[in-house]
Amino acid sequence: MGAAILLVDDDADLLRLLSLRLSANGYAVTAVPSAEAALAQLDIALPSLVISDIRLPGKDGMALFQHIRARHPALPVILLTAHGTIPDAVEATRLGAFAYLTKPFDAKVLLERVAQGLQLSAPPSAQGADDGQWREEIVSRSQAMAELLAEARLVAASDASVLIRGESGTGKELLARAIHRASRRAKAPFIAVNCGAIPEQLLESELFGHVKGAFTGAVSGREGLVQAADGGTLFLDEIGDMPLLLQVKLLRVLQERVVRQLGSDVGKPVDVRILSATHRDLDAAMQEGQFREDLYYRLNVITLTLPPLSERREDIALLATRFLQSLAAKYGKQVTGFAPDALEALTRAPWPGNVRQLVNVVEHVCALATSSLAPLSLVQRALKVPSLEVLSYTEAKQRFERQYLVQLLKLTDGNVADAARLAERNRTEFYRLLQRHELDAAQFRAES
């Protein structure tokens, strides 16, 4: 099936006609009669293009367009207008609508506009990008991630610098790799550097290279990672940890497109696209004088923000199962999935460490699993969660009540009258409690 199109019109006959026409041309069409229904559909799944009448009952097509423009700026919208609403349509195109068509319109013109709009939302990219290979490492079915990936794919078509924000462990490098694979630079190198993991005295040499004799121990010259990424993409992870001295040198590379090796006055031209990432608040770092404002604006041409795992819980079961299958194959284990209560515990966990923490938990479970389905107890152990925390109130109450009765019977050597007196319950009620928990007082007398 082709690209997904959301069609919005209160005219049932026109809605049916357009649906048939678009479906016959290979598009996957979702047709709704109102803006309110369209907004609900957008929350469920993001289409590749929206076609909407301007005049709708309740919230009109202009209000729908304004919502889409605010929430999904990369989503192309084609407006259908009668003569009386042409000024509104013209204003909408000025504000960012892709196109408008005046009723009655030619079907051929509509299909041409749809094809053009879809080309805008899915720009030419690396081979294989159209079938999802560009983002194959990113496993998700959440709406938040769908919107982010739609923007990332648009961004990939340009050479603009991108700053990827997100908490540690959310997958910033995976997103950077996906952008590289969807870009015209896909066949050139992708070089990733963690600016916070390399000592300051080594980072300059690693990034920009050095000539022979540049410093003690430099017995030969070495090309830096900026040059190694020539023609491709350089991903600077944890850019907020880069020392100020190197920020100046990186800014010069971005401005001049020339790199100077350590110990050399000769610049060499480079053609690299810079993607960077951070979990730090760079605005605060700038105010504290720890990050250069001019470099910030060079790197932050476009910002993409990865949601934490706690905001995409619908992805947790999908990710956990995928990780488990991969790790089971790696370790030669026969575990094939999670028990239902184990999967529920994973879904409810807070995940402060995001996807990286989920991988570690699943690896722990896989390593210790002895059955085909990983049990709740292993998940709790990996999460370091006490069993009581995942019990419902009713289950916890029943467990406590049984343990309490057992302790009383042990204390009284199975004497029901004494146990009932200690519990401040009459003997009949106490027998009823014992029966509910399938406890036999005689067993405790025999034990004594």
UniProtKB/TrEMBL annotation:
Gene Ontology MF terms: ATP binding; DNA binding
Domain Response regulatory: 4-118
InterPro entries per record: AAA+_ATPase, AAA_lid_NorR, CheY-like_superfamily, Homeodomain-like_sf, P-loop_NTPase, Sig_transdc_resp-reg_receiver, Sigma_54_int, Sigma_54_int_dom_ATP-bd_1
Domain Sigma-54 factor interaction as annotated: residue spans: 138-367
Short name of any one Pfam family annotated for the protein: Sigma54_activat
Modification 4-aspartylphosphate occurs at: D53
Keyword Zinc set for record: no
Protein name per Swiss-Prot or TrEMBL: Response regulator
Species in which this protein is naturally found: Pseudoduganella ginsengisoli
